[in-house]
TrEMBL record:
Domain Methyltransferase type: 132-207
Species assigned in the record: Methylophilales bacterium HTCC2181
One of the Pfam families matching this protein, by short name: Methyltransf_11
GO MF term set: S-adenosylmethionine-dependent methyltransferase activity
Matching InterPro entries: Methyltransf_11 (IPR013216), SAM-dependent_MTases_sf (IPR029063)
Record protein name field: Methyltransferase type 11 domain-containing protein
Length: 292
């Protein structure tokens, strides 16, 4: 009986190892196909290629938020900038962190070394296809404009590419709850107030959103300069740092408020063909670090 148990566990471990090898090979094969077929965003292999690219960026640990090399994130959406930026700013050590919007709810992101000693909470509208409760991640399904968490609770809050969806039509991609098919474009400010309330004094909010020429595209909006200013005014940080990034035809680069002010967005859900720069989504983003 003991031999059977040992054999069973050996077989189980072998199957797990084999599946990891198969998945890794499949991901690399899909990525190769994406490159060979012209690297068109959202085409077959794009998501696998993006995962490998971001993994490589994070594993190198040499991302400089003030300098992007030529060709950085070529034909990739803003996650190629947001994830490295976030981890370059997040300190090591223990504490409580809230992922407001579930952008960190990815296996290789949650396994990052800077999150291992932290208690991770994820707040989002509805359950997703993957969850990592077995790794100790806590999930709450709620509206970020009225969160259940108490005052002064978190050391850090990350809300990456989330506030642009608040108060708009979230039934397109994120929930089947028809009450979330809205057109209340200014209510993202309620979430900003909630982030401030939930952070401890000295706590940090890491925020990102599409930036450029204002546009309400029903399921998200592009923020402009006055909206950026209002976020800072509402939050009332003790200190803050603004990072501007923009996408050009050969990749992502450092930008300024002025250089990004007319940036637009490629929406794969509503546009039938690519633009000449083959942007995958945002053509400019703001990454904002706000200290309470």
């Amino acid at each position: 009986m003991k031999i059977i148990k040992i054999f069973y566990h050996m077989l189980k471990d072998f199957n797990f190892f084999s599946m990891r090898l198969i998945k890794s090979f499949y991901c690399k094969l899909q990525s190769f196909y994406f490159v060979m077929c012209g690297m068109k965003p959202w085409a077959i292999g794009y998501s696998h290629y993006k995962v490998l690219a971001i993994k490589n960026l994070l594993s190198s640990q040499d991302f400089d938020p003030f300098f992007l090399p030529k060709g950085f994130g070529y034909r990739l959406d803003e996650r190629a900038v947001e994830y490295p930026w976030f981890f370059s700013r997040l300190p090591s050590g223990d504490g409580k962190i809230l992922d407001a919007g579930s952008v960190l709810n990815v296996d290789f992101i949650l396994s990052h070394s800077k999150l291992q000693s932290k208690k991770v909470f994820i707040s989002t509208l509805a359950p997703e296809s993957k969850s990592f409760w077995e790794a100790g991640v806590s999930y709450v399904f709620e509206d970020l404009r009225n969160s259940c968490f108490r005052d002064n609770y978190f050391d850090w809050i990350a809300s990456l590419s989330t506030i642009e969806h608040i108060g708009l039509d979230n039934t397109m991609l994120y929930t089947t709850d028809e009450s979330k098919n809205e057109n209340h474009a200014n209510t993202y400010l309620q979430a900003i107030r909630e982030y401030h309330r939930m952070l401890k004094p000295g706590g940090v909010l890491y925020l990102s959103f599409p930036y450029g020429k204002y546009q309400n595209r029903k399921w998200f909006q592009i923020f402009d300069g006055p909206m950026l200013d209002e976020i800072i005014e509402i939050f009332k940080p003790s200190t803050h740092t603004i990072f501007h990034y923009k996408y050009v035809s050969d990749g992502w680069e450092i930008s300024t408020r002025e250089e990004s002010k007319d940036a637009t967005y490629f929406d794969i859900h509503t546009q039938s063909d690519y633009d000449s720069d083959f942007a995958a989504a945002s053509r400019a983003i703001v990454c904002l670090e706000l200290v309470k």
